[in-house]
Amino acid sequence: MALRIIVVGCGRMGAHLAQVLGEQGHQVCVVDDDPNAFDRLRPDFPGRIVIGTGIDEDVLGDAGAAEADTTLLAVTSDDATNFMVGEVARHLFGIRRIGVRINEPELEAMMVDAGLHPINVPALVARHINKLTDSTGKGA
Amino acid sequence: MIVGGGKVGFHLSRILQQQGHEVTVIEKDPGKMEALERELGEAAMHGDGARPSVLETAGCRRADVVVAVTGDDAVNLLISQIAAKMFGVQRTIARLNSPRNRRIFAALGVEGTVSSTAIIADLIGREVATRELHTLLSFKSGEITIIEIDLPASAPVAGKSLRDIHFPEGALLVSVLHGDDVILPTGATVLEADDRLIALCSHATEAALRTAVLGT
């Protein structure tokens, strides 16, 4: 099923996510306040772009945040910005599926309490490395 | 507890200290620490106030009020929420740098949001000249403000001692910045051209204070 997805932040992570999700057939809109950031998307990027800061209600509105069944991914490199984008999406637009990238693992529990889904990058990398070392340990 | 040791955080800390409150101010930038430590002593603490463990070490759990006054609204919102949700702080105040963010702050119950830019916009709207007078911080939705006045040589109070100057009721001179020195004002303090005055006043007194100090 094609989802409506807003990706906030068109850095390396955001651009990659937007590209992959767009190619999977989802309806993607990517938001960044730096117009040059969209250069990271491939010319065949199938989604929409909105220039502006994702913490701004009007910008998220332009990106389609008010539409039903929207998923939002806040993946800028700044934890505080991602948190604020997530809170605006949740409290001012009533979005329920919100992924928030965090680089500070200490923030994970609070994000969960706030009803946001933390994408805890250091923990994910650590888990991945654990799997890698486990499997080499077993000689796999 | 104050997070952000810039201009607003520094002056706010001084005022609260002078009022007898136990203040801790957390600043991330090591370059600002020397001045903060010199003026505020042990109250100044170095660290990233947007990290829960830093807030906890600084005694956030015991704080009656946490005030986030960095220049970044998202950081201020995050700090207020960490303080309220993780450490049970009853009262959190965050500085709003952009009035556009007022709605989300209110929706999250961040109390007493302060917005110096809104006050400045308000002043401009009322056609009050703000050239030598800047609002640093306002409380209670703008009823009480901390302002900064740069004293030109033409000011009627330049060269006078404080005991000879009549300040309007409702205005309190908090400190005088003379070059790099911070002077705690007494009656004998003499104001000089290029001094910077920091004053606490009610919104209603601002125009009278301006007239008394600048003569305009």
Description:
The complex is a heterodimer of chains A (140) and B (216). By secondary structure, chain A is of the alpha/beta class. Chain A has a single domain, classed as Rossmann fold (3-Layer(aba) Sandwich), CATH 3.40.50.720. Chain A has helices at residues 12-23, 57-62, 79-93, 108-113, 121-137; strands at residues 4-8, 27-32, 48-51, 70-74, 97-102, 117-120. In chain A, strands 3-2-1-4-5-6 form a six-stranded parallel β-sheet, sandwiched between helices. In chain A, strand 5 (97-102), helix 4 (108-113) and strand 6 form a beta-alpha-beta unit. The N and C termini of chain A lie far apart (36 Å). Chain B is globular. The longest helix of chain B has 15 residues, at 73-87. Helices cover 32% and strands 25% of the residues of chain B. In chain B, strand 5, helix 5 and strand 6 form a beta-alpha-beta unit. Chain B has two domains: 2-114, NAD(P)-binding Rossmann-like Domain (Rossmann fold, 3-Layer(aba) Sandwich), CATH 3.40.50; 120-214, Alpha-Beta Plaits. Chain B has helices at 7-18, 30-40, 52-57, 73-87, 102-107, 116-125, 206-214, and strands at residues 2-3, 25-27, 44-46, 65-68, 91-95, 111-114, 133-139, 144-150, 171-178, 181-183, 196-202. Chains A and B meet through helix 3 and helix 4 of A and helix 4 and helix 5 of B.
